[in-house]
């Protein structure tokens, strides 16, 4: 076989591979087109042309022709995300992307409304990030159905209210819960990370909310990678014997009446 023939076959194989990787399922294409059409015209770049090659859409990641990630930000210098400013409500159509594992929507001050109920269908979700938006409503309890979830980050969304779902404690793979800078109230569920096998990976961020009550006793048994409940209205003695990180007590600062190591002793 001549070199030219080998080269031709190699190029043909590469073309076929790229075509296969780029061609999406009809349901994923329809869901992305519905997502695009939920926002004003000219919001998205030319790559979002409605074609079957949706794996080539900016901000979209695929695996074997299925959409597995959506990454959006208004930061023009963030090259990991599609730089786009979204004006409108969170579209329910995202819930039709059944293979979606990761969604990151950041720096979208004009994005409003609650997290749609049909996002409960996204059971393959591993990473869930909504950062600095104007979305409203509660943190959905259906997130507890995301049994593969590793990281949950809904922060800097001041219109997010309600309580922290205790059902999050049922997720055995969940390592990161970041719910800082919202408007959450109520108490901290004592079962958070109770199913996590490697608690040395546990990170909990609840700072700058309106949380009340005390620090759960169970937190003393967790080998924290990071714990921040500062700037709330928590009270009572911090459970003794905990491996709290940071060790300087800053993660407990500016609460109503927390006391005990690593803060000053209770009176």
Overview of the molecule:
The structure is a single chain. With 267 residues, the chain is an alpha/beta fold. It folds into 2 domains: 25-139, Alpha-Beta Horseshoe (Leucine-rich repeat, LRR (right-handed beta-alpha superhelix)), CATH 3.80.10.10; 162-267, Leucine-rich repeat, LRR (right-handed beta-alpha superhelix) (Alpha-Beta Horseshoe), CATH 3.80.10.10. The chain has 2 helices and 15 strands. The strands form 3 sheets. Strands 1, 2, 3, 4, 5, 6, 7, 8, 9, 11 and 13 form an 11-stranded mixed beta sheet that branches. A two-stranded parallel sheet has the order 10-12. A two-stranded parallel ribbon has the order 14-15. A hairpin with a 2-residue loop joins strand 1 (60-63) and strand 2 (66-73). The chain is elongated. 32% of the residues are buried. Residues 1-20 have low confidence and may be disordered.
Write a compact overview of the structure shown:
The chain is 12% helix and 25% strand. The chain is α/β, with parallel strands linked by helices and 267 residues long. The protein starts with a helix and ends in an 8-residue tail after the last strand.
Low-confidence regions: 1-20
Strand content: 25-35%
Mean pLDDT: 90
Total individual domains: 2
Can you tell me the CATH topology of the largest domain? Leucine-rich repeat, LRR (right-handed beta-alpha superhelix)
- Estimate the helix proportion, in percent: 10-25%
At CATH's second level, what is the architecture of the largest domain?
Answer: Alpha-Beta Horseshoe
Beta strands, count: 15
- The number of distinct helices, counting runs of at least 4 residues, comes to 2
Estimated radius of gyration = 22 Å
Report the top-level CATH class of the largest domain: Alpha Beta
CATH superfamily of the largest domain: Ribonuclease Inhibitor
Helix-strand sequence: HHEEEEEEEEEEEEEEE
Shape: elongated
For the termini, the CA-CA separation is: 87 Å
Structural classification: alpha/beta
Describe the largest sheet.
Answer: 11 strands, mixed
């Amino acid at each position: 076989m001549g070199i030219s023939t080998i080269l031709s076959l190699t190029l043909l194989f590469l073309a076929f591979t790229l075509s296969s990787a780029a061609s999406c399922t009809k349901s994923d294409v329809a869901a992305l087109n519905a997502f695009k059409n939920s926002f004003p015209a000219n919001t998205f770049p030319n790559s979002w042309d409605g074609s079957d090659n949706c794996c080539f859409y900016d901000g979209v990641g695929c695996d074997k022709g299925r959409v597995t990630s959506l990454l959006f930000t208004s930061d023009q210098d963030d090259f990991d995300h599609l730089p786009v400013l979204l004006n409108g409500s969170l579209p329910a159509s995202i819930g039709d992307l059944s293979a979606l594992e990761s969604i990151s929507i950041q720096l979208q001050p004009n994005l409003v409304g609650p997290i749609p109920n049909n996002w409960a269908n996204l059971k393959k979700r591993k990473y869930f990030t909504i950062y600095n938006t104007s979305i409203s409503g509660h943190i959905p309890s259906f997130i507890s159905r995301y049994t593969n979830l590793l990281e949950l980050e809904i922060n800097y969304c001041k219109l997010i209210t309600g309580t922290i779902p205790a059902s999050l404690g049922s997720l055995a793979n969940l390592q990161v819960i970041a719910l800082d800078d919202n408007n959450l109230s109520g108490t901290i569920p004592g079962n958070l990370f109770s199913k996590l096998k490697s608690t040395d990976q546990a990170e909990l961020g609840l700072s700058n909310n309106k949380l009340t009550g005390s620090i759960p006793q169970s937190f003393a048994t967790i080998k924290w990678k990071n714990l921040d409940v500062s700037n709330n209205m928590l009270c009572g003695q911090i459970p003794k014997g905990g491996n709290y990180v940071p060790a300087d007590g800053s993660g407990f600062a500016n609460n109503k009446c927390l006391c005990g190591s690593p803060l000053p002793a209770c009176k």
